[in-house]
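User: Reviewer 2 asked us to show a designed sequence for the structure in our supplementary figure. I'm pasting the structure tokens here. Could you produce the per-position amino acids so we can include them in the response letter?
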């Protein structure tokens, strides 16, 4: 039997490695969007009680953060997050209250200070709970709740 292996140059291997790396980055970025970081209301609006299937939910929202198994059926729970507002490093509080979006605030000594640059932190923005029928394949009901005050 003859040897059918094809020899590829090192440049082709490097090009293939770069392409695979880029594909991995794109897929990971897409997975984060599909997960709980951002519950898209347009996708939530697509959910139809009694007809939407579990595979559609998994396609639109990814794996849930929590799965509850009960005699009534599966329950998927998703949580959407947003960046928390920056806090005063000295006091640990949000300067000017949560409603304020000013670039400056007054400290305890009544001196004007620039808001600190936010470096980390997330807060819950929305919740999605999906109840499936006892067979586990069809959405029985769902509840979507926004916690940031928007409709």
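Assistant: Here is a per-position design you can include in the supplement:
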């Amino acid at each position: 039997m003859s040897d059918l292996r094809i020899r590829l140059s090192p440049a082709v291997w490097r090009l293939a490695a770069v392409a695979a790396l880029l594909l991995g980055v794109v897929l990971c970025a897409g997975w984060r969007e599909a997960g709980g970081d951002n519950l898209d209301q347009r996708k939530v609006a697509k959910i139809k009680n009694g007809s939407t299937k579990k595979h559609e939910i998994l396609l639109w929202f990814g794996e849930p953060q929590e799965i509850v198994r009960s005699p009534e059926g599966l329950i998927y729970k998703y949580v959407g997050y947003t960046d928390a507002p920056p806090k005063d490093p000295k006091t640990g509080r949000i300067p000017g209250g949560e409603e304020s979006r000013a670039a400056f605030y007054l400290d305890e000594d009544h001196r004007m200070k620039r808001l600190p640059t936010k470096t980390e932190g997330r807060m819950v923005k929305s919740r999605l709970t999906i109840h499936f029928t006892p067979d586990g394949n069809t959405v029985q009901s769902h509840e979507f709740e926004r916690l940031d005050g928007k409709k």
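For the response letter, you might also mention the following. The helical segments are 10-34, 41-46, 54-61. Residues 31-36 have pLDDT under 50 and may be disordered.
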